[in-house]
Every structure is written in C-alpha cells, then in structure tokens.
C-alpha cells in the first residue's frame, strides 16, 4: 500500500488475506535503527504513516530472541499459579498495575503489572512479592525482556517525533515517561460463559507494545469497521497509539496524570461502557490535532487454550496540548490545552452530549 505525505510516497508493507484485513509491517531490525541514516528516516516515515492510517503496526523486532520470548512466556504462566491470596498482595498506588481481573464484564481476564520493569530493583521487588523464596529465573528473564521492550518503545517515539519535525520534544517526552509492563492471562470460558477477554477499547496511555503467545484472539478494528484477527509470531510486536499520542508534557501533577490514565480503563469499563467508543475517538483527535488514529481493539477467546499476552504501556506525566508545530493554515488548532482529569470529570457528569463531549469541553 502506498501513502502520500508531504509529496512523498511511502510504501507500507501489509499483512492479511484480503484488501480490508491488513496491518502494516515495519522492519525494526538493527540496520534500520541508526538515527539519521537513510533507512532510519525511511522507517520513521513508515511508522508515522502507519499510525495515522491504522493507529497501529506490526514491528518486526529481533533483539528479543526466540529463546527469550519462550522463557518469558513460560514465566508468565507461572505468575498466575500462586493462590489469589498471594497475588492480591501485589498492590500499587496506580490502578491498572498490581494485580487485578475477574471483572463481571470481563471474567476471563486477569493481570499482574510491574512498574518500570526495566529497572532491576523494581523487578526484584516484584519477584520477592510473588515468590517470597525467590525466583531468579523469572527476575532475570523479565528484567531483560522489559529493557528490550523499552528500547523498542523509545525507538518508535524517536521516529515519530522525527517524522513530524518536532525532535525537540523527544527528550522531554522520554524524561517524563512512566512505564508499566502488564502480564495478562485470558482463561478458557466455561460452558454458557461469555467469551469476551477484553471489551472494545482504545488505550489511555501514550504508546502500547503487545507481545502474545501463539493463541489468537486479539482483534483490531480498521477505520472502515473491519475487525482484523491478529496472527501472533515470536518476532512480531503489535505497536498501538494510545489516545494521548503526539502531545508534549507540561510536567504538572505527574502522579495524578499517571493514575488517571491507567484508571480510566477500569472505571470506563465498569461504568461507561456504552459511551466508550465515542469518547475515545474524540480524545485522540484532540490530543493529536486530528492526525494520529487510536484503533479500537478487543480480545475474544474462541479456542480451548489459555491466552497469555505481555503489554508495555508508556504514560506521560502532565497536562496535554497539541504541539504548536502540528498547527498550520491547513491544520488549524482544534483543541485548547486541557487537563485529562478535568475532562474525565466532565464525562462523568455526562457533558452536553457524550458524542460531542471533547468538542464542547476544549474545542474551538
């Protein structure tokens, strides 16, 4: 598929069996990861095109070896073996981290999260809670894995800001980022039980990277409403734009910002399910000034095997606004700087209409 941007043509490699069921593929192997090289610039433009057109892409990333992939997923299964009484001891000040799951609307879903797992001490502390007698194998494999996912996240972010010509925001974005690695399990539904693993949603964090075992079930919706069944591979990672994508951090109320970003997923699932689609699409338009797309996705469990996934979620500490460089005569500023927590309170009260809530809240 060819997409034109600024009079340049960028060929997107795509996967799928027909014209609609396709996802872009971007090569993140070593030869494309040296900033400033011709291949890096070309890859940066492909990343931008993919996020604008699809809201996601498949990253071919071989820094995580096949052996590391298998080892970390073996460890992921072991994470959920301890009794619930042990797992609930892993608590966090940030909702969405710690341990959670078994929600009435999503009974198959269970997760355990590590905050800043690329930090060895954080992974050691997490391991000591889950295994009081220690588990050096898990600690080592999880820490190495989290570091490599972090490298991929930051490579994507550097390419995005470069392609938009806003390189000056890269360091502030990285310096104000908070990372959560979430291990997720989806059990097989019992007889007459719903097969919903995760309801349709868009992510409230900045950037998401998903790795999964061989079991299918993760589905992504295209702009024309077609649901794509993602086919896992040990060297493929699904990179998805969250709703706050392409904003700059203003370094305000960092803990509240992180809490709200993660907590949104939980309370909207439980209280505002009927309105989630309209809210999410409008928020993405506000934060990116209408450029980057946040794709809806869901998990549906249809087979007889448990599904395990690992997600790396990045969050930005602070208020959000459209970068001034993304505003011009053809793309006038559509939204004022705004507080995400304040907008959520606005939605909680209903707003004038849920369909136009973001426009009436902070639109011009």
TrEMBL record:
Signal peptide: none annotated. SUPFAM superfamilies: Clavaminate synthase-like. Pfam families: 2OG-FeII_Oxy (PF03171), DIOX_N (PF14226). The keyword Isomerase does not apply. Residues 177-318 form the Fe2OG dioxygenase domain. Belongs to the iron/ascorbate-dependent oxidoreductase family. This is 2-oxoglutarate-dependent dioxygenase AOP3-like. It comes from Olea europaea subsp. europaea.
